[in-house]
């Protein structure tokens, strides 16, 4: 009687493992996964980028279309960014960038009042 329960448990565990590995491969290794991840992360960043303007894979290389940045005290645009990196290096506490290209960055600092602490 224990054998069918053990077999069913192993089948469920195998199915869960396959689903997790498949999801991770899709997120990290496809353009659709990159766009899905970006669509969830971009609302928390002070920039405007349409996920449809992303190409490549999250594990690299990847490229963007136009980016608009708007943060307190600064605004600007970047025509495009391309990045080739090794994200697994993050597990070792390192950022390993093989190639980073930023095309036509244009930023403007907002002026501050002469008496404000930021102007000093």
Strand content: 25-35%
Tally of separate domains: 1
User: What count of helical segments does DSSP give?
Assistant: 2
How far the N terminus sits from the C terminus, by CA atoms, comes to: 79 Å
Number of strands: 6
Poorly predicted runs: none
- Assembly category: single chain
Helix content: 25-40%
User: How big is the Rg?
Assistant: 22 Å
Order of helices and strands: HHEEEEEE
**Helix- and strand-based class?**
alpha+beta
Shape: elongated
Report mean pLDDT, rounded to a whole number. 87
How is the biggest beta sheet arranged? 6 strands, antiparallel
Task: Give structural attributes.
six-stranded antiparallel sheet, alpha+beta, 32% helix, 2 helices
What does this structure look like?
The chain has 120 residues and is α+β, with helices and mostly antiparallel strands. It has one domain (2-111). The protein has helices spanning 2-29, 31-41, and strands at 47-48, 55-56, 62-63, 67-71, 74-86, 96-109. Strands 1, 2, 3, 4, 5 and 6 form a 6-stranded antiparallel sheet that branches. Helix 1 crosses helix 2. The radius of gyration is 22 Å and the shape is elongated. The mean pLDDT is 87.
Topology:
Layout: H1 2-29, H2 31-41, E1 47-48, E2 55-56, E3 62-63, E4 67-71, E5 74-86, E6 96-109
Antiparallel strand pairs: 1-4, 2-3, 3-5, 4-5, 5-6
Helix pairs in contact: 1-2
Compact summary:
This protein is of the alpha+beta class.
């Amino acid at each position: 009687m224990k054998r069918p329960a053990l077999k069913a448990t192993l089948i469920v565990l195998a199915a869960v493992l396959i689903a997790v590995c498949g999801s991770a491969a899709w997120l990290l290794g496809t353009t659709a996964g990159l766009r899905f991840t970006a669509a969830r992360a971009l609302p928390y960043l002070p920039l405007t980028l349409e996920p449809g303007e992303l190409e490549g894979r999250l594990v690299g290389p990847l490229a963007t279309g136009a980016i608009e940045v708007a943060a307190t005290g600064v605004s600007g645009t970047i025509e495009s960014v391309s990045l080739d990196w090794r994200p697994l290096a993050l597990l070792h506490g390192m950022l390993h960038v093989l190639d980073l290209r930023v095309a036509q960055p244009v930023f403007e600092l907002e002026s501050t009042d002469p008496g404000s602490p930021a102007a000093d």
